[in-house]
Amino acid sequence: MSSPNLVWPGRAEEGRRVLRYVDALSESVALEMARDPKVFLFGLDVDDHKSIQGSTRGLLEKFGAGRVFTTPLSEDAMTGVAIGAAMAGMRPIHVHIRMDFLMLCMNQLVNIAAKARYMYGGQVKVPLVVRTIIGKSWGQGAQHSQGLHSMFMHVPGLKVCAPSNAHDAKGALAAAIRDDNPVVFVEHRLLYATEAFVAEGAYVVPPGRSRVCRWGRDVTVVGISNMVVEALRAAELLKEVGVSAEVIDPIWLAPLDSDTIIDSVRRTRKLLIVDNGWNMCGAGAEIAARVAEACAADGPVAIRRMGFAPTPCPPSPILENAFYPNPATIAAEAFALARPGTAPWAPDPSSAKLAYQMQFKGPF
Amino acid sequence: MAATKAATAKRPSRSGADAGRIYGALRRIRRAEEEIARIYPTDKIKSPVHLSIGQEAIAVGVCDPLEPRDAVSGTYRGHATYLAKGGSLPAMMAELFGKDTGCARGKGGSMHLIDMKANVLGTSAVVGTTVPVAVGFAMAQKMLGTGAVVACFMGDGATEEGCFPESLNFAALHKLPVIFVCENNGFAIHEPIAKRQATDRLCARVATYGIPTKRFVDSDTRAIRSHVAAALPKMRKGGGPIFIECMTWRWREHVGPGEDYDAGFRSISTLKKWQKKDPVEIAAKALTRAARAEIDAAVEAEIAAAVRFAEESPFPPVEELYTDVFA
């Protein structure tokens, strides 16, 4: 690998070059806005000098203030505005710099966006993308760190996507923009600097297709959002002690391709889900239930879930570290699943640090 | 003649086509809802109904000067706006009956009426939620350069929701073509406005956003119509939103076909006062007895046909449960 930040998918092919996640996002939007004049992008700070941590950089210059503009701090009404514009034939992208702010949009997303197609008898569609970023580390604290994707997975009529790398971020965002339904597009702040090989032209990573990131025999590990990266590191550590972990990235959480996960668990009979959110009623609970329902008839399956500690997120680093799963805790949990009855094992924590996380400095 | 026509555009004459059309629109809404109330106890209607009987002047006054390209966004008490803007009466009646031929194929009910062919945007059962949606629809008209305006109806309760001032601010900031229409009937379900709002100066509050406002104390159809008609040309050219507050009275109970004057929270003497200003009867005064009879007969025939259509239409097949969750 040419860079310490390079993560899956790491294939160098013709027409691909190394691109950061954050640049893949802006590139995808630029391509879609050039392709379709109905696409526009709005949200607080999308047009300022910091351009949503770089993810909207260059768009104002390219497409002008008529298609790239800021909003008042009115998340509730602005979500309604996006929905109304979508019903009139536009394709809005509404940007929120933290996922926590989506709680202000819940009424419009759940009561109107998710239901309009259905409760209006198919007379309208709502092609809306809600871009949002999960924060982590450097003291983000309780209200700048939440992974709330499972709340949206719960509601029929919403699609949810949480790409873990630059390649999927670009393709899935294009797919979301072209989708005729509301999509909650969940990014992760710590992934912004990570790099992958990304094709220059437009392409889509379509809804409802999970990716097997790494093949393995002994245990299936499903990662969500940046937990894919942490699970891949855990898999490397597990390999050192002879445990072969298969790592799966659902990419799209709704619709969820659980078949890929179920196929894997049919072979390994062991499943560890590592979520970037709380376990209670979380994405992991849904995946675990589907796997249990599908696999129970042909023998026992061992299932474990990891996620945020069942607390708000604290900013103090000692507490914050304990709040999240990390490659060492993931590897230890996967080892216990894969080698039941043997002595517990945990890797040296210093070997479990991830370059992209160590590089991140605040303030935001 | 040209001068007469120009005057007509602003203020309908007391006789002729305008008077007939306005009376017909008012009478049609009144009688359609009275018919809904009559049928309701039979249980054929499978939907909670919030009748706008008594409030029809606002919907007709606002919608009459609108063009087909213009849109209207109503409330869950939305039969009047839907019909006034040209929404299909048979499709509405079938929707109330839960039938497959309903405007939302039996998946909306009375609180989620829609007719996009007539530019009637979908209504919502969550108070105020349609206000920003209407503003977004108007923003798209501006982006697309259609010249269309959106009439956005809300009740007095909706003006207490956070999205109301958020929407006013955004519409004013971007000079969006929205006619904000507050149907102020003084009650949110059963709670009087004096128990909910610190002052009654709604228009003054709205005006601080730089939006021209006007209050109509008795929901006079012709006055509302004239005001809206006069505002439209400037709005089509980017003049920005306007706001009107129309004082009115809900004759019937909050939800259902009956009345609620025995509950003690509002007085029947106020009803009597408003009934003396019944917009349907006021509009009828501009017509000859024969002209009125002719319109009444046509209205009755249309409503009877709509009810028959609803009754004879099939329920949706059970598979319909799963369609249109996604586009």
The parts of chain A where pLDDT drops under 50 for at least 5 residues are: none
Q: Quickly count the helices of chain A.
A: 13
Distance separating the two termini of chain A: 28 Å
Strand count, sense and closure of the main sheet of chain B?
Answer: 6 strands, parallel
Q: In this structure, how is the largest beta sheet of chain A organized?
A: 7 strands, mixed
The name CATH uses for the topology of the largest domain in chain A is Rossmann fold
Oligomeric description of these chains = heterodimer
Global Rg of chain A: 20 Å
Radius of gyration of chain B: 19 Å
The share of residues in helices of chain A is 25-40%
Strand fraction of chain B equals 5-15%
Please give the domain count of chain A: 2
What is the topology, as strand order, of the major beta sheet of chain B?
2-1-3-4-8-7
Q: Tell me the series of helices and strands of chain B, N- to C-terminal.
A: HHHEHHEHEHEEEHEHEHHH
How many strands in all of chain B?
8
CATH class of chain B equals Alpha Beta
What strand line-up does the widest sheet of chain A have?
3-2-4-5-7-6-12
Look at the helices and sheets of chain B and give the structural class: alpha/beta
Secondary-structure arrangement, i.e. CATH architecture of the largest domain in chain A: 3-Layer(aba) Sandwich
| Structural domain tally of chain B | 1
Number of strands of chain A: 14
